[in-house]
């Protein structure tokens, strides 16, 4: 497998040559990533050349509409699904609220759903509110020490009443990658649909959702080097079954059924830049010439390889410290490079100390209140979270490790 050319990667992100950011090592990527150049270029082009109502028969408008369609088609192809199975909404949280509304109408009192206490609130709270409608909400619980979800525990709470199982591809504080295919197979065998929050996973390589198998897969483009959009794969069978949440006359178009508002045209168009970026990385590293899904898989593995190599020393450096409790596994190959540490003091003030060492990180609960609570973390202190991606360099990791030595 080829190794990632980090200099090439960084040349694709204007933030790395931005004078005001020099010397600042960015470790809050799980909150939102830097934006890649192809996305910025498309956004600028849209706003300067195509900022008109799309899909009308004059050139600027035709090009605007074509670029929006291109974004959907190319991103869907990378993820192994049909173009109309991908839709864009304002954020993942808003997307789950719309989806929960659709399930609210489709489900009957006495039906059940499964949620976890590992999820970010976005894939938890909207579903739990279905209890107001007489839907039974069952919680698939993490191990309070490791933060892991055990698929066997899911099997134990499934029965014919369960219509939907919601869980994260990986949590934004625990970081462990859940076996989506295995869990999906268990849920499907019990007759339930599956909704996966991929927000914390997708920045580390777009997954092939078609192969993974869930019925819904959500991620946020502002964390995958793109614009501020929530991206939502809804497989056709489920999308056609759930009641339309958009205007009644748009109900025949799958990608409009769960996005009631007029979308952000420029940002959708600019999302094609994420596909450009995948192609650029693939080409530069001599990856497959054809097949969007194959190129996506190649780039996914390239990113993961780089991240795992950089992550293991970070985990080794923090796992046995008295002053810090590492949340989640210390095996880099099993987790995303999103590392939360519970400290015996306020995490936000430690993040402030890191800032004086040129390390940009955050402290708090990151809307992962339930998992932190379940793991016995003092929410008043919160956790320090350092998160990186494939564009992070070895030098920045060294800067982080030195800074952690100084402040912990
Ligand atoms: C794992 C996870 N899920 C969901 C969300 C919510 O995404 P959005 O900000 O697009 O609503 C976040 C945001 O941080 C997240 O980390």
TrEMBL record:
<dbReference type="Pfam" id="PF00266">
    <property type="entry name" value="Aminotran_5"/>
</dbReference>
<dbReference type="InterPro" id="IPR015421">
    <property type="entry name" value="PyrdxlP-dep_Trfase_major"/>
</dbReference>
<feature type="domain" description="Aminotransferase class V">
    <location>
        <begin position="26"/>
        <end position="241"/>
    </location>
</feature>
<dbReference type="InterPro" id="IPR000192">
    <property type="entry name" value="Aminotrans_V_dom"/>
</dbReference>
<dbReference type="InterPro" id="IPR015422">
    <property type="entry name" value="PyrdxlP-dep_Trfase_small"/>
</dbReference>
<protein>
    <submittedName>
        <fullName>Selenocysteine lyase/Cysteine desulfurase</fullName>
    </submittedName>
</protein>
<keyword id="KW-0663">Pyridoxal phosphate</keyword>
<keyword id="KW-0456">Lyase</keyword>
<dbReference type="GO" id="GO:0016829">
    <property type="term" value="F:lyase activity"/>
</dbReference>
<dbReference type="InterPro" id="IPR015424">
    <property type="entry name" value="PyrdxlP-dep_Trfase"/>
</dbReference>
<feature type="domain" description="Aminotransferase class V">
    <location>
        <begin position="303"/>
        <end position="400"/>
    </location>
</feature>
């Amino acid at each position: 497998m080829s190794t990632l050319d980090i200099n090439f990667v960084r040349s694709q992100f204007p933030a790395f040559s931005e004078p005001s950011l020099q010397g600042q090592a960015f470790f809050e990527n799980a909150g939102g990533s830097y934006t890649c150049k192809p996305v910025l270029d498309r956004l600028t082009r849209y706003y300067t050349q195509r900022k008109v109502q799309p899909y009308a028969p004059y050139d600027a408008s035709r090009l605007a509409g074509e670029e929006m369609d291109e974004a959907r088609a190319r991103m869907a192809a990378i993820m192994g699904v049909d173009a109309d199975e991908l839709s864009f909404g304002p954020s993942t949280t808003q997307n789950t609220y719309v989806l929960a509304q659709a399930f609210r109408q489709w489900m009957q009192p006495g039906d059940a759903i499964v949620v976890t206490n590992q999820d970010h609130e976005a894939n938890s709270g909207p579903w739990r509110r279905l209890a107001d409608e007489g839907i039974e909400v069952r919680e698939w619980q993490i191990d309070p020490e490791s933060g892991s979800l055990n698929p066997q525990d899911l099997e134990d709470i499934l029965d014919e009443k369960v219509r939907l199982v919601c869980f994260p591809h990986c949590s934004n504080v625990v970081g462990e990658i859940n076996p989506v295919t295995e869990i999906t197979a268990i849920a499907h065998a019990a007759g339930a649909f599956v909704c996966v929050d991929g927000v914390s996973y997708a920045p580390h390589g777009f997954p092939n959702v078609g192969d993974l198998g869930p019925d819904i897969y959500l991620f946020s483009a502002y964390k995958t080097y793109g614009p501020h959009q929530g991206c939502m794969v809804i497989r056709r069978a489920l999308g056609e079954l759930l009641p339309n949440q958009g205007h009644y006359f748009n109900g025949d178009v799958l990608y409009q059924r769960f996005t009631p508002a007029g979308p952000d045209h420029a940002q959708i168009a600019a999302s094609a830049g994420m596909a450009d970026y995948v192609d650029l990385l693939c080409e530069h590293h001599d990856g497959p010439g054809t097949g969007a899904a194959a190129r996506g898989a190649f780039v996914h593995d390239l990113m993961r390889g780089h991240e795992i190599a950089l992550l293991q020393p970070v985990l080794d450096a923090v796992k046995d410290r008295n002053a810090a409790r590492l949340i989640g596994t210390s095996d880099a190959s099993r987790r995303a490079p999103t590392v939360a540490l519970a400290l015996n003091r306020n995490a936000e003030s430690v993040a402030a100390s890191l800032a004086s060492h040129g390390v940009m990180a955050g402290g708090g609960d990151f809307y992962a209140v339930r998992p932190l609570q379940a793991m016995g973390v003092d929410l008043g202190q919160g956790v320090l979270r350092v998160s990186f991606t494939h564009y992070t360099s070895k030098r920045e990791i060294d800067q982080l490790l030195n800074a952690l030595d100084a402040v912990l």
